Amino acid sequence: MKKIAFLGGGKIGRAMISHVTETGSAEVAFVYDPFAKDAEICGAPVVKEVADPMFEGLDLVVECATAEVVAEFIVRVLKYADFMPFSMTAFRDDELRESAQGTAKENGHRVFLPHGAILGLDGIFDGRTELEEVTVETTKNPASLGQKNNEYAVLYEGPTRKATELYPRNVNVHAAIALAGIGFDRTHSKIVADPSVNTNTHLIHLVGKGIDFTIRVSSFSEGGVTGKYTPLSACGSLDRVLGGAGFQFV
Ligand SMILES: NC(=O)c1ccc[n+]([C@@H]2O[C@H](COP(=O)([O-])OP(=O)(O)OC[C@H]3O[C@@H](n4cnc5c(N)ncnc54)[C@H](O)[C@@H]3O)[C@@H](O)[C@H]2O)c1
Question: Is the pLDDT reported for residue 221 higher than 90?
Fold first, then answer.
């Protein structure tokens, strides 16, 4: 059975830990979360400190904490195991991305980039050479964007690189699309705070030679950074990474 660990045991992490525990598809060695109140999550021990030898013998480490945690651990983990990050805004840092790619290749490990809150990330990646213009517009309740004012406002409009710097917790979809498509400088981001909605909505438009895609994804939000759909998609991505018999969408 595959042995995995988690960095972060919040909404997305708990959904995946409970899923692998129920399906028996992997053994969870530990969950690193210095802020978690529980000593264990679904029987998996929560640890407050982590040292590199703890990654030895693992097949996969899943990050579901913050972009800083990706920056701190991705290269260290890739010396021992595969890595699946959910805090995609970390990849706005070109140096980090290149260093992770280099370490993965040197050590024969993979970085699995989950589609997370959006649909069709694999299709965007497949068509990337033909793409010319990519725009992503996200509308969330001000509380979900960490805003104190409960007012309608366009918070940002411009290149995705700056959006990911200003709102690292909120624009993982923008980062994922930039990464799969035409990069952080050429992808255009718009972030809207709207007190009349209780959903996280992403409107994505991709245009290129012979290509015109519009993707609209809307998912109920209880006020945190993550909508209803992402934990479900995270469990699906983890299942695909862990493998097993039967039908697989690829
Ligand atoms: N890729 C996507 O489409 C997508 C969608 C939604 C959320 N996200 C991102 O995924 C991540 C997890 O989301 P969530 O909804 O589970 O968040 P959450 O706030 O529910 O959980 C985050 C967990 O990480 C822990 N944590 C914080 N700092 C840590 C550290 N230094 N080391 C280890 N653990 C730490 C927190 O204690 C918390 O338990 C966030 O970065 C979020 O922005 C990505």
Answer: no
Distance CA 88, CA 66 (A): 9
**Look-up of token digits 């980090």:** 96
Same domain, 168 and 238: no
Residue 142 is encoded by which pair of tokens? Answer: 């001000």
Q: Is 214 exposed, middle or buried (0-12, 13-18, 19+ CB in 10 A)?
A: exposed
Q: How far is the CA of 225 from the centre of ligand 1 (A)?
A: 8
Pair 10, 112 in one domain = yes
Q: Which atom, in ligand 1's list, is nearest to the CA of 67?
A: 41
pTM: 0.96
247: CA distance to ligand 1 center in Å?
30
At 158-211, the pLDDT tens digits run 999 999 999 999 999 999 999 999 999 999 999 999 999 999 999 999 999 999
Q: Are strands 131-140 and 199-208 parallel, antiparallel or unpaired?
A: antiparallel
Per the structure, the count of domains in the chain is: 2
**In this structure, are 201 and 79 located in the same domain?**
no
The catalytic residues are 202
Longest distance between any two alpha carbons in the chain, whole Å: 54
Residue 38 counted as domain residue: yes
Whether 80 and 163 map to the same domain: the answer is: no
Say if ligand 1 is within 6 A of residue 217 CB.
no
Q: What pLDDT, in 10s, does the model give residues 129-143?
A: 999 999 999 999 999
42: containing domain = 2-116+230-242
